[in-house]
């Protein structure tokens, strides 16, 4: 008889381990029931988008939209954390505070190795952050041009930051939504290097070029009538990627809120070519980076060393529809897992996949093979790995002693994460829902990461991804493999 699924459970991060596979004990959660153990959260206060992702001398910097004085959105700062391994994060003092030009909205950071900005020296080139000033006073006074782009720089490898004295560097042309600059260095057709800024402008993106990060020239724009337009475009990024056949493609990430496939916030992407400020998508299809409700505003790290040939990405694990009312107490929001984004081919069509960063495997502590339909979970921080060997259909339920449950399944070409009975759900009308994504090709593996208040499902190592937050009143204690889906037999599990 065929083997239908091969299941492995890894307990992650939390200390537990004295027991073998036969006698799994449960590790109770700490006082902050919903605080994740291996996802980044700010110690206190509000967080949204990841910002200024940059690697420097062995450290991954993660800046983030932060309001330290409250657990709801407010005057934005750039919070700051660093990690040597993408697993353990150390929160540092706030990097950027609001000033007379406005709140510090989202943006990016680059290493200006040739000191083109002259904000450092040739001997000690600067890190430069490019972000949006949001002037709330002007906004309240009825102006439309209250968002501009500014610079800050660091000459001590990102520890401390100074604002550029002649900010802003890019004025507002009279457009209400004009923000979230993501800057990268490109090599132009003439072989010269230039800085390229991708900016969200209302319902499209604009591309600007600069020799020095201070003087910007508009090259072109993209997006009118293409892609999803259920809300404003935010946090874009243009990335040069290798296709499986070795050719080079440009991938444009665009977050949109509202108007995602599951309501509220989500990130769409386009694959195509980019020349002289003109982005041309290969087709007019709408595609989503993640089909779950809780993955927004993700971007990639800049300045990765040459031996890291990857596009390392992280997102904000929430949704503007309810981010400010989720039932956490001292902080609000976590980041997603760090993921590597890359192109893959399905029947001649290129798509974008998001694979958990391999570093995460270092978190695995004890390994348990599941041999029954129903097994206890060792902790609230686990990774579940399953090989789907006979059929593309599967279904499993995570549950606790209160009858709360989370159901994950694939059936009839739809992959679904159902959090309708997942615990605390009443803080928002739409939170209790089932989220499905179409998958026309075969599921060969599933990988599920559970932390105290999230689930991240990767089918075929990220060819299809669903990310959702949830708030079980008591942690998940059991995983049950449900019978009856097509011909999946669960008795042959290992
Ligand atoms: C996206 C976003 C950005 C903006 C920031 C403000 O979540 O709305 O467009 O810069 O958040 O906090």
Q: Topology, pairings included?
A:
Layout: E1 5-12, E2 45-56, E3 59-67, E4 77-83, E5 90-96, E6 103-111, E7 127-134, H1 136-140, E8 147-154, E9 162-163, E10 178-187, E11 193-201, E12 204-210, E13 217-222, E14 232-242, E15 248-257, E16 266-275, E17 278-281, E18 287-288, E19 296-300, E20 312-316, E21 331-332, E22 339-346, E23 349-356, E24 364-369, E25 374-376, E26 382-388, E27 394-399, E28 405-411, E29 414-418, E30 434-438, E31 445-451, E32 454-459, E33 464-469, E34 478-481
Parallel strand pairs: 2-21
Antiparallel strand pairs: 1-24, 1-26, 2-3, 3-4, 4-5, 6-7, 7-8, 8-9, 10-11, 11-12, 12-13, 14-15, 15-16, 16-17, 16-18, 19-20, 20-22, 22-23, 25-34, 26-31, 27-28, 27-34, 28-29, 29-30, 31-32, 32-33
Bound molecules: beta-D-fructofuranose.
Residues 48-49, 65, 76, 105-106, 132, 179-180, 234-235, 297 line the site of beta-D-fructofuranose (FRU).
């Amino acid at each position: 008889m065929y083997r239908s699924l091969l299941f492995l459970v890894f307990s992650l991060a939390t200390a537990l381990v004295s027991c073998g596979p036969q006698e799994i004990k449960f590790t109770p959660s700490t006082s902050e029931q919903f605080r994740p153990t291996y996802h980044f959260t700010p110690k206190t206060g509000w967080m949204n988008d990841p910002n200024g992702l940059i690697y420097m001398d062995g450290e991954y910097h993660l800046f983030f939209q932060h309001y330290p004085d409250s657990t709801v959105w407010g005057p934005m700062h750039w919070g700051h954390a660093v990690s040597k391994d993408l697993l353990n994060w150390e929160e540092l003092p706030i990097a950027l505070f609001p000033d007379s030009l406005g709140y510090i909205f989202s943006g990016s950071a680059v290493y200006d190795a040739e000191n083109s900005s002259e904000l450092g020296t040739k001997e000690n080139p600067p890190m430069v952050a490019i972000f949006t000033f949001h002037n709330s006073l002007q906004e309240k006074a009825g102006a439309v041009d209250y968002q501009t782009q500014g610079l800050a720089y660091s000459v001590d490898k990102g520890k401390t930051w100074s604002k550029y004295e002649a900010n802003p560097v890019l004025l507002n042309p009279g457009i209400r939504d004009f923000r979230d600059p993501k800057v990268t260095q490109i090599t132009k057709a003439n072989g010269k290097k230039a800085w390229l800024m991708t900016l969200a402008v209302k319902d499209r993106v604009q591309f600007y070029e600069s020799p020095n990060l201070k003087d910007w020239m508009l090259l072109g724009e993209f997006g009118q009538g293409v892609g999803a337009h259920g809300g404003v475009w935010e946090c874009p990024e243009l990335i040069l990627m290798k296709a499986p056949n070795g050719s080079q493609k440009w991938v444009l990430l665009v977050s949109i809120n509202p108007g995602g496939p599951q309501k509220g916030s989500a990130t769409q992407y386009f694959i195509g070519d980019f020349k002289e400020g003109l982005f041309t998508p290969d087709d007019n299809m709408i595609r989503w980076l993640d089909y779950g409700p809780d993955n927004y505003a993700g971007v990639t790290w800049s300045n990765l060393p040459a031996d890291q040939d990857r596009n390392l990405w992280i997102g904000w694990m929430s949704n503007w529809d309810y981010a400010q009312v989720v039932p956490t107490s001292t902080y609000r929001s976590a980041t997603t897992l760090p993921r590597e984004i890359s192109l893959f081919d399905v029947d001649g069509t290129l798509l974008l996949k998001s694979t958990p960063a391999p570093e995460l495997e270092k978190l695995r502590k004890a390994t348990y093979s599941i041999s029954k339909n129903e097994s206890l979970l060792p902790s609230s921080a686990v990774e579940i790995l399953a090989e789907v060997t006979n059929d593309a259909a599967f279904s499993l339920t995570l549950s606790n002693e209160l009858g709360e449950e989370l159901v994950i399944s694939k059936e009839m070409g739809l992959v679904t994460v159902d959090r309708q009975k997942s615990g605390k759900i009443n803080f928002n009308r739409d939170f209790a829902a089932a989220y499905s994504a179409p998958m026309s090709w075969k599921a060969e593996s599933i990988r599920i990461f559970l932390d105290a208040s999230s689930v991240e499902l990767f089918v075929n190592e990220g060819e299809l991804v669903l990310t959702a937050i949830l708030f079980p009143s008591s942690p998940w204690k059991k995983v049950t493999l449900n019978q009856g889906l097509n011909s999946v037999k669960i008795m042959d599990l290992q």
